[in-house]
Records
---
Amino acid sequence: QVQLQESGPGLMKPSQTLSLSCTVSGGSITTNYYYWSWIRQPPGKGLEWMGAINYSGSTYYNPSLKSRTSISRDTSKNQFTLQLSSVTPEDTAVYYCARVGQGSVYPEYDYWGQGTQVTVSS
């Protein structure tokens, strides 16, 4: 029922700011007690959690990316957004948005977007 869809530019030049939006349908981003996350996967590498925004608007960031990462939301559009400043080719990756749900024992990523490819190249 819940669906997430990423949108944004597929190509970026170094030093620019990446902006991606995740549109959620079938559920509200303000519903207790879900967290809404951004995760990326560079080619040939594992998943990297970037950050999240929770149901009340509190944000959390991967310390390695915090200085240039900002997550916000627009509740009227049921969207949350990722901004990553000063991008370099090392930021080339597939970017996913995902929901963190309760799970049976532990919190789990229960819904994912399809992912969107972002390539940073001069």
Note: The chain has no helices and eleven strands.
---
Amino acid sequence: QVQLVETGGGLVQPGGSLRLSCTASGSFGSINAMGWSRQAPGKGRELVAVFSDGGTTNYADSVKGRFTISRDNANHTVYLQMNSLKPEDTAVYYCKGVIRPLARSILYEYWGQGTQVTVSS
């Protein structure tokens, strides 16, 4: 069983910062890409940032220059540093892991339960 747990969400004023964390736990063989997506009320899910197994990072245009994704491979943790937050960043943020379970050769996508980020004055 593999679990992804996000922490760090909350209420912040426009221009403020938050740092989200996501840790993978359980039994698995390896982690490939990890990333973050978000879903605002009444809107579809948007991919925010991805950290590939090769170390390449990609960001949505809407967050480029403001958000930074990083990984701590030893602790199976991915972070999302969010600066200069805007009201339109308000959403539930979900952690994604592309993970190979034990005794498996096929990669699977796992998702966390999400953490609420609210940007409001």
Note: The mean pLDDT is 96.
